[in-house]
Specification:
Helices cover 37% and strands 14% of the residues. It has twelve helices and 13 strands. It has helices spanning 16-25, 44-52, 67-87, 103-113, 128-133, 147-154, 200-212, 254-259, 275-282, 310-322, 331-341, 344-359; strands spanning 5-9, 36-39, 55-58, 94-97, 116-121, 141-144, 163-164, 187-190, 220-223, 244-247, 264-266, 287-290, 304-305. The strands form two sheets. A seven-stranded parallel beta sheet has the order 3-2-1-4-5-6-7, with helices on both faces. Strand 11 (264-266), helix 9 and strand 12 (287-290) form a beta-alpha-beta unit. It is elongated, with a radius of gyration of 22 Å.
Length: 360
């Protein structure tokens, strides 16, 4: 029986973890490992797998919050997955969890199949308690998708080395840099989601500061998601008197959307990698970004601001709008840096070597 790597990813909507995993699953270099995706039923991810001919096992994931309920649910889940794999003649030789939340389920399946175990560490808010709770240290191969996060996670793990495997994109995802508009834009795209750590409230705080100083601002800011619940992430929109904030809902055609704007802002407070920012630059569109994830490796300091710091964001946005015609957004150089450091081929080569070690 040929080698099979079973990837575990619970949530299936289009977001960073899912798009990065999908790029790996469909890569030519992964075919020798016969990748199979285990995920919740429905959604963007299994549909993409079907489009690219990647095998999928769909199964409802356990949701209990209690320890006893979670352990029982994990056991039932594992039995159902084993049955579905058996029907299709699949016996995984490696189990690969796409993040720490899939850790307990991955270990359960690895034990059943006597398979090798691998895990990506990718959630920026992960703590040492999470690392212990999900038994990440019991995985044979661990890798983090970002430099700073890898160093932080290594501080929790003394028994083994945590590898650095960046997320990546394909060379054919790049578009020529968009010709800069002659005048400052009247509409700006804001990437992220309603989650508070994506920094939307920092942007609206910055806009409030700039309005108070009489700075001429774009008429509209369009956010890639639904309007946040003020109880969890209050953007305080009522204080913005001259700006329209629009919420676009879930976005599927991200690159096409990005390309319709002349300026994009990424206000995220923390990222492990920060794929949305990389995708914006690959699309050839000017970007202002917080210093989060790997962005400092591709963009110049002049158009970066401190995360969780509305005043810093306001200074950079004011400077860019005020001297628009003279601003060099460095998109050409950024695209070259991405090609040099963050193509998916590099990640696949590292995974291939890791899987070979696990298969011995």
């Amino acid at each position: 029986m040929s080698d099979t790597v079973l990837f575990i990813q619970n949530r299936t909507h289009r977001a960073g973890a899912q798009t990065c995993l999908m790029r790996l699953l469909r890569h030519e270099g992964m075919r020798r490992w016969n990748p199979v995706l285990l995920c919740s039923p429905g959604g963007w991810l299994p549909a993409e797998c079907a489009r690219y001919g990647v095998a999928v096992i769909e199964q409802e994931f356990p949701r209990s919050r209690s320890l006893s309920g979670r352990l029982f649910g994990n056991a039932v889940f594992a039995r159902e997955v084993v049955k579905k794999l058996g029907v299709r003649g699949l016996r995984p030789s490696i189990i690969h969890a796409n993040d720490h939340q899939e850790g307990l389920l991955g270990l359960k399946l690895a034990a059943h199949f006597n398979a090798g175990s691998a895990m990506f560490l990718r959630s920026p808010g992960m703590t040492e308690d999470d690392y212990r709770k999900y038994r990440c240290g019991e995985y044979q191969f661990l890798s983090a998708v970002g430099d700073e996060f890898r160093d932080r996670a290594q501080g929790w793990e003394s028994a083994k080395n945590i590898e650095l495997i960046h997320d990546g994109i394909y060379a054919d995802e790049f578009l020529p840099p968009k010709l800069k508009a002659s005048l400052p834009p009247q509409r700006v795209l804001v990437v992220g989601s309603p989650l508070d750590w994506k920094g939307w409230a920092d942007l609206t705080d910055a806009l409030h500061l700039l309005e108070g100083k009489g700075v001429a601002l774009p008429a509209a800011f369009d956010f890639t998601g639904v309007s946040p619940d003020p109880a969890y992430n209050d953007l305080k929109l009522a204080r913005l008197s001259k700006i329209q904030c629009n919420f676009l809902g879930r976005v599927e055609g991200f690159r096409d959307l990005v390309r319709t704007y002349d300026l994009v802002i990424n206000p995220s407070r923390m990222e492990t990698f920060g794929m949305a920012a990389i995708e914006v630059l690959a699309a050839g569109v000017p970007l202002l970004s917080s210093r989060s994830g790997v962005i400092e490796q591709v963009l110049s300091a002049a158009i970066l601001f401190e995360p969780y710091d509305p005043a810093s964001l306001a200074v950079v946005l004011d400077a860019v709008l005020g001297r628009w015609s003279g601003v060099d957004f460095g998109v050409v150089q950024a695209q070259a840096a991405i090609c040099d450091k963050f193509l998916v081929d590099r990640a696949v080569r590292k995974l291939d070597a890791a899987y070979l070690d696990l298969s011995r």
